[in-house]
Design goal:
688 residues; alpha/beta; seven-stranded mixed beta sheet; 27 helices; 23 strands; disordered C terminus
């Protein structure tokens, strides 16, 4: 084995600095930066968003904002990534970077070392316990308890201050590689007594960890900001001027019923939506979704930030809008008179769909609506399908109409039809297209409607916002961006998977890239035939391939991930393979020692396909269901698909996941790998 970079330190700063070829130390204020032509932005490695953002701005927002700041100066942003938060300030002070873009809580110790920017936000540190533990209401009640936090965090100093008065509080350091949500999860399971966390993180965590409760506030309201070196006052002034224009630091009410001028003054527009495959979800650590990407483009054109608010169910979308919890709804809503009668105004249509009856493949008798007589159709009462089916009944079709639970997404109801739990349902054609792209156990048997329009929804007292949305739709609908986005999500048919039987020829060659598979597989201790099988699954050996979310090259690596790995030009075969193998190696190294043998490969492949966060959600769910979280085949491969169901993904840290996909992904790679191994046993192995 000849690894050039250890798997736990493959990212730029820690890996390159260790070999002496990282960014050369350089200090200086804004004039020196202008002379160099760049600003080096220090940031923690963005492995994944720490959690699916369900309330507020996406977590990669800080890095995007820092990049915008540097470009506003006419300079080039250069990201320098560190493995650990505690490396940020030392890296700034020793000249490895010029600006810390992570949101750091201002503490006296940190203020003595670096200069803080104007606030980008505010937090309150809270002591958090398990819900059954109701005996702790203040610091004195922590006597005899153990509080677990990272030593490098601001929470450590907070607990130390409590211990000055109550020395019998036990303070224990958490492993530095555990993030705050991991620690909160362990508290929710009873593995730790208590911890301390920022209120915004606690609020997010409690959305999917109902076992947590806030015992008391450990601090008052504290500022969170960026950092520059103390000897860079001109840079600090420029940062503060930029942040003042961005209007980030103030708190605002949860409910705010303003029109477009108020939104512009606020600097952010709040999109109400749902966490589903057609709207908004995490894929390989990246926030994606048709509605999300369209809304993000709209926000950019307005010159404001996009914040996402995930409603608890579809029935709540419009009520939350009326209450002022969001500014508009973007969730594939059909424009109906019933909805407009509740004080809602719809934009001009941005999509047209047909409502399709969904049945199992063997159900070949249904060709016209009259044949629904005697059948049971299950849909949400709040959906547009309900009045469509009621109209059929009024016309004499004696179907049984049954209300599905409101918390169910259409995708889960479709899944219940596939399993036989429900007889029939109805789904919009674009949702059915997504489902059909990865499954063959349901089909659309007939349309119930002609094309029906979808629109974004606003309150009737927002005429200027409505006019802005209408103008946006008018210019974007069926334009280049829209068409590419639509094809990416709804017209990307299921890949035709070749049979495993297309084996290597008698020459022993698998692909034109075998020699590169050898080089990088050897370097990172993989079987080259496994890497070849993965590359085929990712791109069918096409180095020009591009995924719906922008992953590139033979191994379909996201540009952001490649940047953090120090690799560019992903469409060059050597670079694409190197980035993919490095990332797979890093994922394997993150797994705990309890995952052994071939399962380390299978779990790493699942994380490569679905994202590390979704794999961790599946492992946590496996424990809840008394399944083995360390075994793939026969355990996790049965658990992961459950994350498509709201009863599970609403309590999952990373939310919704089409996690039948990684199950097929791992299975197909293993089958192809086994075929390659068998073929290589029959033929000379080239390139060794």
């Amino acid at each position: 084995m000849n690894k050039q970079l250890p798997g736990s330190a493959v990212f730029l700063l820690t890996a390159l600095a260790a070999t002496g070829c990282g960014p050369k130390p350089r200090t200086g204020d804004l004039p020196a930066l202008r002379e160099s032509g760049e600003v080096r932005i220090l940031a923690p490695r963005l492995r994944e968003p720490e959690v699916l953002p369900r309330q507020g701005q996406p977590l990669e927002f800080g890095q995007d904002l820092a990049e915008s700041f540097v470009r506003s100066l006419g300079l080039k942003p250069v990201f320098v990534y560190v493995d650990r938060y505690e490396d940020l300030i030392p890296s700034l002070l020793n000249g490895r970077g010029d600006l810390i873009a992570a949101s750091l809580t201002e503490t006296p110790e940190r203020q003595s070392r670096m200069a803080f920017s104007a606030p980008v936000g505010h937090v309150v540190e809270q002591v958090v316990m398990r819900t059954p533990d109701s005996l702790v209401a203040g610091p004195a009640d922590l006597v005899g308890r153990t509080v677990v936090v990272r030593r490098s965090s601001s929470y450590w100093d907070t607990v130390e201050r409590m211990r000055q008065r109550y020395p019998d509080i036990t303070l224990r350091p958490a492993p530095e590689d555990l993030d705050t949500e991991d620690i909160l999860y362990r508290v929710s399971r009873g593995e730790y007594d208590a911890t301390v966390a920022d209120d915004n993180l606690v609020e997010e965590a409690r959305a999917y960890m109902p076992g947590l409760r806030v015992a008391f506030n450990a601090t008052g309201r504290q500022s969170v900001g960026w950092g520059v070196r103390p000897d860079a006052p001109e840079l600090l002034v420029a940062v503060n001027d930029f942040l003042e224009d961005a209007a980030l630091g103030g708190r605002r009410p949860e409910r705010d019923r303003v029109d477009l001028p108020g939104i512009r003054e606020r600097g952010a527009i709040r999109m109400l939506t749902r966490n589903s495959a057609a709207t908004y979800f995490i894929w390989r650590g990246q926030l994606v979704g048709f509605e999300y990407e369209l809304a993000r483009r709209f926000a950019r054109q307005l010159g404001v930030r996009l914040e996402v608010v995930v409603a608890p169910d579809r029935a709540s979308l419009l009520s939350w809008l009326r209450q002022g919890r969001g500014d508009f709804v973007a969730a594939g809503l059909t424009i109906t008179p019933q909805r407009e009668a509740t004080g809602i105004a719809f934009s001009r249509p941005y999509n047209y769909v047909r409502e399709m009856v969904v049945a199992r493949p063997a159900d070949s008798t249904l060709t016209r609506p009259q044949q629904l007589a005697g059948r049971t159709v299950v849909v949400r009462r709040s959906s547009s399908y309900w009045p469509t089916l009621q109209a059929l009944r009024k016309r004499g079709v004696r179907l049984q109409l049954k209300a599905a639970p409101e918390e169910l997404e259409t995708e889960e109801i479709v899944d219940s039809v596939a399993s036989g739990a429900y007889d029939l349902t109805v789904a919009d054609s674009h949702i059915l297209a997504i489902e059909r792209s990865w499954r063959d156990d349901v089909r659309g048997v007939m349309p119930l409607t002609d094309s029906v329009p979808h629109g974004w929804a606003v309150r009737r007292n927002q005429p200027r916002l409505l006019a802005a949305i209408d103008s946006f739709v008018h210019h974007e609908y069926r334009g280049r961006f829209y068409n590419l986005l639509y094809r990416r999500y709804f017209r990307n048919p299921a890949r035709i998977r070749q049979e495993v039987a297309d084996r290597p020829t008698r020459t022993g060659r698998i692909s034109p890239f075998d020699s590169l598979f050898h080089v990088f597989a050897d370097r990172y201790d993989f079987d080259w035939r496994l890497i070849a099988a993965q590359a085929y699954e990712e791109s069918q050996f096409n180095p020009r391939a591009r995924s719906f979310a922008g992953a590139l090259g033979l191994m379909q690596v996201l540009p952001r991930t490649a940047r953090e790995l120090g690799v560019d030009s992903l469409r060059r075969p050597a670079h694409g393979i190197k980035a993919g193998v490095m990332y797979l190696d890093w994922l394997r190294d993150q797994l705990p020692e309890s995952v052994t043998g071939a399962d380390r490969i299978w779990l790493a492949l699942a994380a490569y396909n679905a994202g590390w966060g979704h794999l961790m959600d599946a492992r946590r769910l496996a424990r809840r269901l008394d399944r083995d979280p360390n075994i793939w085949f026969g355990s996790l491969d049965a658990v992961m698909p459950l994350l498509a169901r709201p009863r599970y993904h609403t309590r999952a840290r990373y939310g919704y996941c089409h996690c039948s996909q990684p199950v097929r992904y791992v299975r197909d790679i293993r089958l192809r790998y086994q075929a390659y191994v068998a073929a290589m046993a029959e033929t000379p192995v080239a390139g060794r």
